[in-house]
Amino acid sequence: MSIRLATATVRRMCFAALGRMTIAVMTCAVLVLISAGVAQASFGIVPGSFKVTALNRDGSIDTQAGSHPFEYNVTFAFNLNSEKEPEGDVRDIDVNLPPGLVGDATTVPRCSDEEFAGNSVKCSGNTQVGVLRVTLQGSGRTEQPLYNLEPSRGEAAELGTTVDGFNVLENVSVRTGSDYGLSVDTSNIPATGIVDVSETVWGVPADSSHDPERKCFVGLSIVNGCASGVVPKSFLTLPTVCDAPPIARMDVDSRETPGMFFPDPPETALSVDSGGNPIPLTGCERLTLEPSLKVAPDTQAADTPAGLTAEVKVGQAALGSPEGLSSADLKNTMVELPEGVVINPGQAAGLQACPYSQDGVGTEGPPSCPNASKVGTVSIKTPLLEEELEGNVYVLPASPPNIELLVAPADPRAGVYVKLIGKVHMDAATGQLTTTFTETPQLPFTRFRLSFSGGAQAALSTPVSCGTYTTNADFTPWGTPFQADDLTSDSFTVTTGVGGGACPASLPFTPSMIAGATTDQAGGYTDFSLLLSRPDDQQRVSALRFETPEGLLGMISKVPLCPEPQASEGSCSATSQIGHTVVEAGPGPYPLVVPQPGEPPAPIYLTGPYRGAPYGLSIVVPLHVGPFTLQTQIVRAKIEVDPLTSRLTVSTDPLPQIIDGVPADLRAINAVIDRPGFMFNPTDCSPQEFSGDATSDGGVSTTISSHFQMGSCQSLRFKPNFKVSTNGRTSRKDGAGLTAKILYPTGALEHNQASGQSNIASVKVDLPKQLPSRLTTLQHSCTSAQFENNPAGCPAASVVGHASAITPVLPVPVSGPAYFVSYGAAKFPELVIVLQGYGVTIDLHGETFINSRTNITSSTFRRVPDVPITSFELSLPEGPNSALVAPRGKLCSSKLVMPTAFTGHNGAVIHQNTPIMVTGCPKHAGHVPKKRHNKKR
C-alpha cells in the first residue's frame, strides 16, 4: 500500500475498525495523524500558478501607471495528490493586492443583500463586475458571475458569487495597519473540493464588450448575455509607482487546519516579461499632480490664539474615465507656514501626549488616544468611499523643536482607519513651523483638510503685525521618474489688532511693573516680589533692569554664594536659593504658567561675582510643559551696588525669545524673594520707588517704576554711641591724629528686625579750634578725575586715614583708606572714605568747610547709606601727611569738645557736644570734659 494514502481512505478504514480491538483503534489513530500530517504538509498553492495580470482591451499586458485596465485576472491552483484530488479543502483565501491598485466600487451599482441572499441570486446585470471560474473535484469547471454587493459594516467593498450552490463573499478591506493596499478575503469556503480558480474583474464593468458574459435576472430566470444599462465608468486603477514591480501576495488555509496559513505565501508581480520576470509599471511621466492649497487661521487679528485650517485639493476628474489616467498619488507633503505663525504656549496647559502604545499605528483599528492629546480634526474625501473619512489630530511624545502629530481619519462603516504621522519642525531661531508627511498611502483623494483647534487655548497664534502672510508647500508624487515636485502657495491677511482694533503702525511697548515688600515695617524682615507684565499686541520683553529703593537689602552674610560654573550650569546648591520665579507665556486670556501646577518651583539663586558686579542671580526655569520637556532655561542677572547709596541695580541678561522652536512670548514675570530672614526693609519712611527700564526685542527701552514706602519709622530707636579720641603728643612734623567710633548695641536685632534702630542718614561734626586742618595736606589732595578712574592711583599724600565698619549684611568687615579729594566746584577738598569688602565698595563723602574767621573745620557726611552697622571706626593718624595739626603740648591741657549732629533715616535728629578723649598725656595733665547737652528732636 502506498504511503501517500488519501486522508479520506485512511479515515474510512479507521471508522470500519471501531468497535474492534483497542490496539486496532490506537493504530488507526496513529495512521490518521500520520496521513493527516502528510496531506496537510502538501496542501497549498501549486508553485508558479498564482498570477495576477492587468490586461488592455486587446489582451496585451497593461503596464501604464495610473491607467484603468480593461480586465484584471487572478489565477491559482491547489496541490493535488496522486489520485488527482486536492490535498485538502481550502477554507480561507486572502489576496493582498499591491499598494496603489484600487477599485472604486462607487462607480458600479450594488446588489442588495435581499437580492443576493438564498440559493437563487437575483442581482441585476449592471451590478456584475466580473466572472469567477472554478474547477471542482468531480464536478468539472463552473463559471459564475461576480457581483458588486452592499458591503457589510467594517468593509470597504464586498463582491459575491456562488460556488457549487453556495454563496461566497469576497470582502475588500484596506490594510490600514501596514501599506494601505487592498486585501480581498474570502472566508469559510464550503468544502467543495476546489482544484483551481480563475477570477476576472472587469476594469469597466458596464462596457458592452462584457455583455456576452453578463448574466441578468429577468423575471424568474437568469438570462445569459445582456447589457448593463449604466454609463461605463472605470472600476480599477493601477498604481502610480514606476520604480518597482507591484507585488501581490496570497494566504490560504484549509478546513482541516483552520488558521494555519503557510509561512511562505506565494507572491507574484502585476506585470512580467516574456520570460516571466517581474517588470515595473511605466509611464509615470505622463501622470499629472496639480494640487491646490488653502491655508488660513480662524481669526484675522494679530497676536491672538488661533485655529488654522490647511486644505489640499487634488483633481481626480479622470479617475472614473475609462480612457483617462488618474492623478499621481501623493507621497510626500511639506507645508511651511509663514514666519510669525507659531505654536501657542498656552495650549500646553493640560495637554497630554498620546502614548505610542495607544496610537494604533501598525494595527487595523483606530487609535485610543486620550482626549487631552487632541489638537485638531481632519477629514479626507476619497472617490473610493461614499463617506468622508473624519477623525482627530493628536500629539505624540516628542522633544521640541521636533514634534509628531498623529492624523487619524476614519470611516468606521467601511472599516478604514487611517493613521498618518506628521513631523513638525519648529525653527530654533524664529519658531516658524514646517510640517512634513512622508510615505503617505497610495490612495487617491480629492480633498484633505486638517484643522488645528482654535479658541482661547488654540494650537497656534497669529503674527504680531498686520500684513499678508504666505504659506508654501511642496508636493512629491509616488511615481518616478516624475518631471518635478509640485510647488504651490497660498496667502492670508492679518487685518486687525488684538480684539479687532486698528493695526498700529508699529507695535508699542508699554510694560508695567508692580514691586514691593510684603510687610511695611521699617527695618523689618520681609519677602519681596516684582511683577512685570505686558499686554498682547506689543513687542516682547528681551531684558529687564530695575533699581531697588534705598535700604531694601538682603542679608548676604546668611547665604552661601553659588560659585561658577554651577551658577551658569544651573546646578547651585539649595543653600544658595533666595526665592523663585513664575512666568506666563503666550497670547490670549489663558497664557501658559511656568512652572505648571504640581511642578517644582523655578529657583532663584544668589551667586558670586558676575559680569563685573559683586553678585549675581542664577534663575533656573525647568520647562516641563504639558507633554513636552524643553531645554531648561538659566537666566543670569548681575547685581550692582551703588557706592554712594548701597542701592541695588539688577540687570538681566537677554531673556529667551525662542526655546526649542517654541516662542517664549513672555507676558508676565513674577520674581519672589522669600528666603526667611534674608531681605529687610529700609528705616526710611519717605516715599521711594522701584525704578528701571525694560527693553523689547525691537530694541525699544521703556521706563518702569512702582511706588514704595515704609511705615512705623517712628517706632525705631535712634541712639548711636559716638566716641572720639586724640593723642596729646603732637608735633609740628607729624601733626595731630583723631579716632572716631560709632557703636550700635547688638541687642537691637530683635522682634524680626534686621535693624532695631534707624540707620544713620547724615553726620555733621565741628572739630575744635585746637585741631585745625593741615593746609599742606589739603594741597596734596587727589583730583576727582583720578579718584573716579582709580583711587589706587591717587598720590600717597592724599591718603589721610583708614576706616572700617562691621555690618550684619556682609560676612566680613568693610574697610579702606580715607582720601582728600578735590572737586572743582568745591572750595575745600572732601574727605572720602572708601570701604570695601566681599565685593562691595561704599564711598562716604564728607564735605570739608574751614571757617576763615574761627579756623574751625567742619565735616558733613550728607548721604550715609541706609545700611545697618554694629560699629564704625575712622582713624586719622599723625604723620607727615596728617589731616590735622595741633599746638605742641596744648591738647593735654585743653577741654576738647566736638559739636555733633546725627540724623536718622527715620527723621530723628540728635545734637550733642561729643567730648574728645585725649590720650598719651602726663598723669593729671589731661582733662576730659563732660557732655554739655544732649538734645534730640
Major sheet? 12 strands, antiparallel
Structural class: mainly beta
User: Mean of residue pLDDT?
Assistant: 89
Tell me the overall shape: rod-shaped
Helix share bin: under 10%
- Assembly level: single chain
Percentage of residues in DSSP E strands? 35-45%
**Count of helices?**
6
Low-confidence stretches: 1-41
* Total number of distinct structural domains: 5
- End-to-end separation in angstroms reads 136 Å
Radius of gyration: 47 Å
Quantity of strands, as a count: 59
Helices and strands, with pairings:
Blueprint: H1 7-17, H2 22-42, E1 51-55, E2 71-77, E3 90-96, E4 102-103, H3 113-116, E5 128-136, E6 140-149, E7 157-163, E8 166-174, E9 182-186, E10 194-202, E11 215-218, E12 221-224, E13 236-237, E14 247-254, E15 267-269, E16 291-297, E17 305-306, E18 308-314, E19 330-336, E20 342-343, E21 374-381, E22 389-396, E23 402-411, E24 416-417, E25 420-426, E26 433-437, E27 447-452, E28 460-461, E29 467-477, E30 486-494, E31 512-517, E32 528-533, E33 541-547, E34 553-554, H4 566-569, E35 577-585, E36 592-594, E37 602-607, E38 615-625, E39 628-641, E40 648-652, E41 658-659, E42 662-663, E43 666-673, E44 679-680, E45 688-696, E46 701-708, E47 721-727, E48 738-743, E49 760-766, H5 775-778, E50 782-783, H6 784-789, E51 799-806, E52 814-822, E53 830-837, E54 840-850, E55 857-861, E56 871-876, E57 897-904, E58 909-919, E59 934-936
Parallel strand pairs: 47-58, 50-52
Antiparallel strand pairs: 1-2, 2-10, 3-9, 3-14, 4-13, 5-6, 5-10, 6-7, 7-8, 8-9, 11-12, 14-15, 16-18, 17-28, 18-27, 19-26, 19-29, 20-28, 21-22, 21-27, 22-23, 23-24, 23-25, 25-26, 29-30, 31-32, 32-43, 33-40, 33-45, 34-44, 35-36, 35-37, 35-43, 37-38, 38-39, 39-40, 41-42, 45-46, 47-48, 48-56, ...
Helix pairs in contact: 1-2
